[in-house]
Amino acid sequence: MLIKMSLRGAKRRSNLNGFSLIELMVAVVILALAIFGIFLAFTTSFQGMADARDRTVATNYAQEKIEEIKNKPFEEIVDDPTDPDEPPVGISGTKFKREVNVTVDVDGSIDELKKVTTTVSWMNRKEEEKTVTLET
After folding, report:
1. Which of 11, 16, 44, 99 qualifies as a FRET site for 63, CA 20 to 30 Å off?
2. Acidic residues composition bias: which ranges (predicted)?
3. Residue 43 parent element (H or E)
4. Pair 110, 120: CB distance under 8 Å
């Protein structure tokens, strides 16, 4: 009679609802993968936003210099007297470097025409050099 009672108790336990250790471990792994995917998406989007911000700032620095040159009298618009072999000048307090080139119309088809090219460069988070170039 003791044997029947113990079997009946074992049968009763197997009918109880709940989670086994394996089911719990599988659920934890699935949850961890989902959280990792979300974290990766956030990281990628933040890097994209930082790159877009840097490109916008660089474009503003280039446009600022072009506007400054546009406001000068035509005779005062000359090429930067710095040595062309030297690296571009850094903008103080930033990671950006700006280079300005002024060239006179080379083919001579239009009188009094000058071309202004402004290039702003910087290093991104992956240590890749990025540039923005504006011309008038």
Report:
1. 44
2. 76-86
3. helix 21-70
4. no
Label residue 130 left, alpha or beta by phi (over 0 means left) and psi (-120 to 50 means alpha).
beta
56, 62, 71, 90 from 80: Cα distances, Å: 24, 15, 16, 14
Q: Report the distance separating Cα 47 and Cα 133, nearest Å.
A: 22
Put simply, whether the predicted model's pTM sits higher than 0.70 gets the answer no
Quote the distance between the C-alpha of residue 27 and its chain's center: 35
In the numeric block, the tokens 């989902």 are attached to 34
Q: 26-49: b or e for each residue (b if 16 or more CB lie within 10 Å)? A: eeeeeeeeeeeeeeeeeeeeeeee
What stretch of H or E contains 118?
strand 114-123
